[in-house]
Design goal:
17 helices; 48% helix; two-stranded antiparallel sheet; 350 residues; Rossmann fold; globular; alpha/beta
Length: 350
Amino acid sequence: MTTLPQAAPTRVDLAVLADLVTPWAIRVAATLRLADHIAAGRTRLPELARASDADADALRRLLRVLVGRGVFAEPEEDTYALTSAAELLKEDGPFGMRAWFDLDGMGGRMDQAFGGLLHTVRTGEPAYPLVHGRSLWQDTLEDPELARSYAELMATHTTWAAPEVVAAHPWPEHGHVVDVGGGSGSLLARVLTARPGLRGTLLDLPEAAEEARRALEAKGLGARASVHSGSFFDPLPAGADLYLLTWVLHDWNDDDALRILRRCAAAATPGGGGGEILIVENLVTGGRRADVAAAMDLRLLVLFGGRERTPRQLDDLITRAGLRVTGRHVTGTGIHLVTCAAGEQATDRQ
């Protein structure tokens, strides 16, 4: 992929790009829930400091930065108001951004892993275990609060993207779909709602699976949706018509991603059967979202040792797993849906 030549950044431009004060100030504001406190009427500094359990002078200095950046407003001295940017930091703000910035939750914990970026670039290894003493997956297995926080973040992302994914694929009217690593079940719930004749099974680790069971039952889908507690590195429920991998492969290096695909291939084709696999990913291509994909690729490397793959890299994994591409679709926001089935020769179907 080539890039067009750009004007060299000025010293000021580079200083703005490299600034760490504003990003961390925003995260502290999100963690202290300043936007919610201000929205509730605690607009003056003393009461805002008490509500957020903060030192008043330090909070004033934090807000001085954020007012200067346009995140909050200060209509009169030591009295604060929300801007359109601050509205995004409310608990019920769009896209769930406050939780992603919360330093007490998994969103902030993931951000802190970037303190080990130099280690990652020097070694090719994820920085998260270096910074936190254990892998992200160990965190979610050993700390229920971090597991809950991570599951909620993933559910927020999936809920936002699910309508587009559901609309983009010709889901079968009947049969059985297995959502591999399905997390909260929000995508499976939308698929089953859109196809009343379809049955579903969600597979995930025990705690996530139990949460998904409750969520699916609460949506009235208990009769058509089962939950399988387990790992996608182990044999999967066999014989389904469709195996769904939604933003799963990018969390893993090539060897592990290949293991997951081979498990899906084995389950989809027991005795040479004809199940299909649907992979949903944000692939690295040129165009308007190239910078977003590049940033996410680096984030995945720092957190898990994963990667955002190019279409060619994903196709290579699919072929090595004994599968062939049978269809491709890219949604309006750049989500890639790639279907594949047993075989060796790759084909395209738009």
